[in-house]
């Protein structure tokens, strides 16, 4: 039997992939003078030379049309305790930036103050990837928080780190 003989449902794939914990990011851009932002957990490093990261955004996202090649982009890796921001930036029809402490970098992109890490750059490529669009980002600036531990996402919810055992 080959993989081509198998049929995997979306629910099966979601359950299996959901066992793999990932970080949680807030991705932002500036569009027509306004901040646009959304929660993204599909984020990873891509290249050290040149410095690049990659993320994928659901094609159904209302923010996706603003994430175009050449657009400035910021990625904030949320820290432990920032789970409320992950939820806030995933809700449609609200001001996602209301009450959020921001730092501006790069070409004015908003970054979440207190994030575990941050990246500012520009979208270089957009590729179709099933029901998502894969975006590659050239990183112009990046940094880390003061020993902040990242917020984790697994099995459909966010998790703070367990207390250190060491």
Describe this structure in words.
By secondary structure, this protein is mainly beta. It has a single domain (21-153), classed as Electron Transport, Fmn-binding Protein, Chain A (Pnp Oxidase, Chain A, Roll), CATH 2.30.110.10. 8% of the residues lie in helices and 45% in strands. The chain has 2 helices and 12 strands; from the N terminus they run αββββββαββββββ. The strands form 3 sheets. It has a 7-stranded antiparallel sheet with strand order 3-2-6-9-10-5-4. The chain has a 3-stranded antiparallel sheet with strand order 1-11-12, with no helix packed on it. The chain has a two-stranded antiparallel ribbon with strand order 7-8. A hairpin with a 2-residue loop joins strand 9 (117-129) and strand 10 (132-144). The longest helix is centred in the N-terminal third of the chain and has 8 residues, at 10-17. The protein is globular and about 50 Å long. 25% of the residues are buried. The model has no long low-confidence stretch (mean pLDDT 88). Keywords: Oxidoreductase. This is Oxidoreductase. InterPro entries: Flavin_Rdtase-like_dom, NADH-dep_flavin_reductase, Split_barrel_FMN-bd.
